[in-house]
Amino acid sequence: MAEREPGRVAQEVAGSTPGVEARGGDGQDLLEETSEVEQTPAGEAVAEPDYRDLYLRERAEGENLRKRMFKQQQESVAYATKDLAKRLVPVIDHFNLAIEHGEGGSGIELALKELLTALGHEGLEEIAVEKGEPFDPNVHHALTTVTDASVSTDVVAEVHRKGYRFKDHVLRAPEVVVAQPVQDVDRD
Question: Quick one: how far is CA 103 from the chain centroid?
């Protein structure tokens, strides 16, 4: 069995073990622990990572993820019936048209009332619009305009279709005809 030189063994151990270096001379190198600051190949000091700080950052990131997931779940539950309500708005329109034309009698009126009550409990509400109120492009959808000498500003002249809101989202803006004041044009 070949014996190794003591200094060579110390250098091999020091080379393969972080935080340990070989010191000494004349073949009697001793292994010594170095400080916690390691050296990069360029000779720059590399500090020991702050494990407590890393732990706290990871924990905060996990907590933020948990809160974000909880918020998304709450929103999903809150708006689960939004798509259904949006698909039922045309059905409500058909009920209203049937009632306007005198079809179906009180049964249709009762069915519409029950449907609106059930959807109202889920968050559906009609956007109230009355003839003569000021036109607001943020609320109303203008289908067309008519000139009217009796108005001084843009007002709702006629409600074509009712609008509906589900909680804080507009499903359909009320469709209206807008009465505009007559514009005087100077001609030369």
Answer: 44
CA distance 143 to 103: 27
Question: What pLDDT shows up at residue 171?
Answer: 92
Rounded Cα distance, 140 and 123, in Å: 20
Going 43 to 44 to 45 to 50, the CA torsion angle's sign is negative
Q: Which domains does the chain have, with CATH numbers?
A: 82-180 (2.30.22.10)
Chain center to CA of 34: 52
Residues with Cβ within 8 Å of residue 173, at least 6 apart in sequence = 127, 139, 140, 141, 163
Strands (E), the chain: 20-23, 30-33, 38-39, 45-46, 124-127, 141-147, 155-161, 163-166, 169-172, 175-180
d(CA 112, CA 123): 16
Residue 133's SS3 state is coil
Residue 72, class by beta-carbon neighbours within 10 Å (0-12 exposed, 13-18 middle, 19+ buried)?
exposed
Q: Return the percentage of the chain with pLDDT > 70, whole number.
A: 73
124, β-bridge pairs: 166
Q: State the Cα–Cα distance between residues 89 and 96, nearest whole angstrom.
A: 11
Going by pLDDT thresholds of 50, 70 and 90, the confidence category of residue 188 is: very low
Residue 146, helix vs strand vs coil: strand
